[in-house]
Write a structure and sequence with these properties.
Length: 129
């Protein structure tokens, strides 16, 4: 993380979880050139579960992603069950979009198959649609 993002993270920590989530959504909108910075920032802050879900739905939603990066960012700090629910909430409707979404999602979360329970959650998520 560069110096500018470290300063931004320090400012966001002072705001608290709810206000920091709103700030990120407003100033680092999904699909913007700055949304990549938001993915770095979310991993370096503490979030209430409700704000994790709000941020995940915002950044995971929209068009299917060209890489697994957004999935990796949120999977790195969310519980697997919360992450899976956020993914379900934004699952694309078009079959073509679902294929790319599923591929990048699988790439990001297979490394969390650390137990039978996690493997079951991941398999169910990837095979739901």
């Amino acid at each position: 993380m560069d110096a500018e993002l470290r300063r931004e993270a320090a400012t966001l920590r002072i705001m608290g979880s709810e206000k920091a989530a709103e700030y990120l959504i407003q100033h680092y909108p999904r699909g913007s050139r700055r949304s990549g910075d938001a993915l770095v920032l979310v991993q370096h802050l503490s979030w209430r579960v409700a704000d994790q879900m709000r941020l995940a739905r915002h950044y995971l939603g929209g068009q299917p992603h060209a890489s697994a990066r957004v999935f990796e960012a949120f999977a790195s700090f969310m519980s697997l069950r919360s992450f899976a629910q956020a993914v379900r909430d934004v699952w694309p409707e078009r079959p073509d979009d679902q294929q790319l979404f599923r591929y990048n999602l699988g790439t990001a979360i297979r490394k969390y198959e650390t137990s039978e329970a996690n493997t079951a959650v991941i398999d169910a998520l990837l095979n739901e649609h």
